[in-house]
Structure formats: structure tokens, C-alpha cells
Amino acid sequence: MTRSGFLCVTGIVVLCAGMVMAQADRKPVPVPGAGTGLVQHADTPVSGKVTTGTVPVRSDLTMIQLLQKGGPVMYPLYLCSILALGFAFERLFTLRSRMVSPPETLQQLRTAMAQPRETFSAQALQAQLEGSASPLARIAAAGIRRANRPIMEVEKAMEDTAAKEVSKLQRNNRVLSAVASVAPLLGLLGTATGIIRTFMTVAASEDALGRTELLAGGIYEALVATAVGLTIAIAALVLYFFFQERVERLVSEIDETATELAEKLASKS
Fold first, then answer.
1. 63 pLDDT more than 70
2. Could you tell me the residue ranges of all domains in the chain?
3. How far apart (Å, rounded) are the C-alpha atoms in residues 114 and 119?
């Protein structure tokens, strides 16, 4: 699936989740005895007239209040979200084209490769690249050190250096992959603790089964932790594939330049 496809799927999932939560907040809760004259509103005096209908649920619960109902598992989930966000910004800064293949370095290589073999100087090119610390410059320098040798030897030196550079570029992507794997498990842990809390409430009070307000805390904890864990995991997974694709694109650009440079550096004998 392409990057646009992942982003579209994530948007649809988040939108649907928001619609479901909003609809749940507005939905009234039917009360036993409604329509039979047996239900009395909380704001009606004891001696007042009995009315019928439904008791609406409070719909002014803010997002922060909702997250607070997720229980202690929310704290590691907050940490996961901070890690994913922080490394996403780090990846956006590091995996820029001008950081991996600076235009000035690329121009120096193209100018050198355009020179005739008689005037081409590998030592002069190496001196120009010494001031650059980019992956492209390090890969080119590895090939320059094997100049005037068989092309297989030049390519092998550049491939070894390129493998190390790709590993460095992909290193922090693993954090996003780890968050995408751990967050759903933390959400599942929150589900288990919420259910345990609900059953403990039932065991501690004989009237708990008939009083939803006593059970709501554990149910909130179970559902909120699961929803937050899945949301973080989906976002982290989309970011992981996004940055993996960016690394592959940058490596492909470097590979084209490195191939031309290897042919220029290799000996013709």
C-alpha cells in the first residue's frame, strides 16, 4: 500500500472513531418503567407529579476528562505517544534530501564526472568532499579511496559504506515500529485491568449489578485504554511506513549517483 493509501485509511479510522464516540455521548439511556408512569426525574419533588421518558446522559465530557478515565495504563500510553511524536519530528528533520544528498555535494560529483578521464583527479574530488559529513559524501569517499582499481572492488567498497549509511538512516524508524507494537498491548492490559476493577466492584457490593454508576469506572478504563492504544499504534505504524518509504527514495537517489561515480573511478585495464 502506498503512503497516500495509509494516510487515507488512518483518516477514515479516526473519523469513524470520532463519530462513534460523539454518537455515544448524545444517545439517551432508556430507564426501566419509562412509559408506565413509574419513573421520576431527579429534579422533581418527591410529592410532585411523576413523569415518563428517558434520562439523558451528560454529554459535556471533555477529551481530557475522558482520557483521565483510562486508568494507570494511560501513563505508559502517554509515553508512547510522546516518543512517536518526538521521533516523527526527528525523522522529518533528518530524512530531508539536502541532509542526505546536499545539492553542493551532488554538484561537485556531477562536475567531476563530467570531466574527461585525462583531466579527472580523484584526489582533488576527495579534497572537495572532506568538508561534507553527508551520507552521499561518505559513500563517494569510500569509492574514491579505491580509485583506479577494478570496478568490482570500487563497487564493493561503496556498497559496504552504503549499507552502513542506510542502517543509520533507518535506525530511529525502529522506535516507531516498537511503539506500533507495544501500544495495542498496553491497551489490552488496560482492558484487563478495567474488567478486573468492574468485577471487584461487583464482588464488593451486592447492589452493584443494578447500579451502572458503580460499574462505569471499570468499563471506562477498559474501553478508553483500548481506544487510545489502538489510535497510537495506527498513527505510529503509518509514520513508520512513511519514513521507510522516504529512506528508500533517498537511497535510490544516492544509488544512481554512486553507480556513475564507480564507473568513473574504476580502471579501464
1. yes
2. 1-58, 102-170
3. 10
